[in-house]
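Q: My hope is that you can spare some time for a protein that puzzles me. Underneath my words sits a plain record pairing an amino acid chain with its backbone structure tokens. Those tokens are not coordinates but codes from a learned vocabulary of shapes. Thank you; the sequence and its tokens follow:
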Amino acid sequence: MGTIDLDRDNAVRPRRRSPHEGAPPPPLPGAEVDWRDQAAFSEAVPTPEILAFAEALLRQEGLAPEGAPVLLRHRPGDRGLPADQGQGLRFALDLTGSRSSLLGGALVFFDDTGRGAGWRAETGALTVWSGPDPDLTELVPGAPERLTLIGRARELVDH
């Protein structure tokens, strides 16, 4: 699993499991998903197949989902993630990818000095972090939709 080395107090360094390290993601949700439009993105309850896929990937990292993960959809012009004031581990699972970070939709982490680093969307990639939330950069016109499952995670006691 790759990591980003940013100077961050009391936080888990952002780490990412590349898609080629695991199984392919489940089929993308279709008309059965009820999207709720927010100011910067749309959100929905994930399908059981997406939840099972996320649970399997998290288990490989010694983690389990906690609470109710949310399925996010970003379209061109959209950016950002839902605000979260909680403590502990969070995760983002890319369900769609991007050919280039120039299309936007990159998950970027910033340290206390403003230095940033991150990853472009890759179908099936899992990112785990604690501490300040990353930014999801704006999708440019013509970019494909970006689907991401985001939620909280906890460490498994026995794995």
Observations:
- The chain has a mean pLDDT of 83.
- The chain is about 10% helix and 35% strand.
